[in-house]
Design brief:
mainly alpha, dip2346 fold, two-stranded antiparallel ribbon
């Protein structure tokens, strides 16, 4: 993220309009925090200290629950503070109201069988034990 912000700053200096969004799969923001697939993500990233949490910014802005992870939640105010100083007021980044807004993640909408996904997720957690 810091590399991207540095590039956005450099672009701003030479009047190139750029912004930041990230494509990600996990955690899945629009399923419950304790869903096995989100727990499997935590199991997969335990070595780097990631953990899932509710996106309180998203809840406040939209009245909707959303799951994100600790690093995005911790960095959001910093990212937005920097963005407001280095991008044009028309830049899409300025419209972010939550860490979840920074991500592009439609994985939850592609689940056709919650049972199969849950079983696979529980097997992944067990494998990582």
């Amino acid at each position: 993220m810091s590399t991207c912000l540095g590039q956005i700053y450099n672009d701003h200096q030479i009047d190139v309009k750029s912004g930041y969004a990230k494509y990600e799969t996990f955690p899945i923001w629009n399923i419950v925090l304790e869903h096995p697939i989100n727990l499997a993500y935590e199991a997969a990233t335990i070595d780097i200290g990631d953990y899932n949490m509710m996106d309180t910014y998203h809840k406040k802005a939209y009245g909707q629950d959303a799951v994100n992870y600790n690093r995005d939640m911790e960095a959001f105010d910093i990212v937005m503070s920097i963005a407001k100083k280095i991008v044009n007021h028309k830049n899409y980044m300025i419209k972010y109201q939550s860490p979840t807004d920074m991500g592009i993640n439609c994985a939850g909408m592609a689940i056709t069988s919650d049972e199969i996904v849950s079983l696979a997720s529980l097997a992944e957690i067990e494998r990582r034990k």
